[in-house]
Amino acid sequence: MQNISEIEELIKLISRLPGLGPKSAKRIVLKLINNRDELVKPMANTLAQVYKNVIRCNSCGSLKSNLSGCLNCDNAKNKYSKICVVEDIADQWSIENSNIFQGYFHILGGTISSVGQRKEELLLDSLVERINKQKIEEVILATSATVEGQTTAYYVQDSLKNLDVKITKLAQGLPVGGEIESLDDGTLFSAFKNRSNLISNSD
Ligand SMILES: [Zn+2]
Questions:
Q1: Separation of 62 CA from ligand 1 center, angstroms?
Q2: Sign of the alpha-carbon torsion through 78, 128, 126, 179
Q3: How far is the CA of 180 from the centre of ligand 1 (A)?
Q4: C-alpha 72 chain-centroid distance
Q5: pLDDT bracket for residue 203 (50, 70, 90)
Q6: What is the largest CA-CA distance in the chain?
Q7: Is there a contact between 96 and 153 (Cβ–Cβ < 8 Å)?
């Protein structure tokens, strides 16, 4: 391949995406270049729109469009009594797809170790506010069965210890090291069904 700096740069960027190495990145770039009008142009426009309009909701941590309200928060008309706390939006999508859980979501946007000093990025103040305001009865900690996930669950639990709310955690049926996103529906279902009680301040 000739050393065209634009192409080199694009390959570098694409190979940083999950599941893609330099080899697949090259194939993707080639496909893009061979389809300039059908792929490159609309993709460039869409990326610019996403960059401009899609932001993180500073209440629930989900993604929202600048142009409208947060669908996750606006779901309030359903009046759920439970909030499920997950690390990533992909975890929320897996849980939603499996139809196991009816309730709100709170997306931490990482783990204790991934946010480092920037603990406020976990939006725990907002989680406390939502629990109080929406009269939440149960908080389900659905973080991964990894050391980071479990440490994060403990940190969230500790931040909620003064609230009048039941806190549960997904069952140990989760494979050790298991990430929520990659679990099949059956495993997720039994993890939700057999979730264990951590604190019940309301008892
Ligand atoms: Zn929101």
A1: 6
A2: negative
A3: 21
A4: 12
A5: very low
A6: 70
A7: no
Ligand 1 centroid – CA 48 distance (Å): 22
CA 61 – ligand 1 centroid, Å: 6
In eight-state DSSP terms, residue 141 is E
CA 71 / ligand 1 centre spacing (Å): 7
**DSSP strand pairing (63-65 vs 82-86):** unpaired
Domain count, the chain: 2
Q: For position 28, which CATH number holds?
A: 1.10.8
Give strand pairing partners of 197. 168
Q: Are 189 and 103 in a shared domain? A: yes
CB 42 within 8 A of CB 49: no
Q: What's the domain range around 84?
A: 63-200
CA–CA separation, 54 vs 60, rounded Å?
Answer: 14
Count of CB atoms within 10 A of residue 75's CB? Answer: 14
95 and 193 housed in the same domain: yes
User: Mind listing the pLDDT tens digit for each residue in 77-109?
Assistant: 678 899 999 999 999 999 998 888 989 999 999
Residues 192 and 107 grouped into a single domain: yes
Cα–ligand 1 centroid distance for 107 (angstroms): 9
pLDDT tens for each residue of 104-133: 999 999 999 998 889 999 999 999 999 999
Q: Please, is 203 exposed, middle or buried when counting C-beta atoms within 10 Å of its C-beta (0-12, 13-18, 19+)?
A: exposed
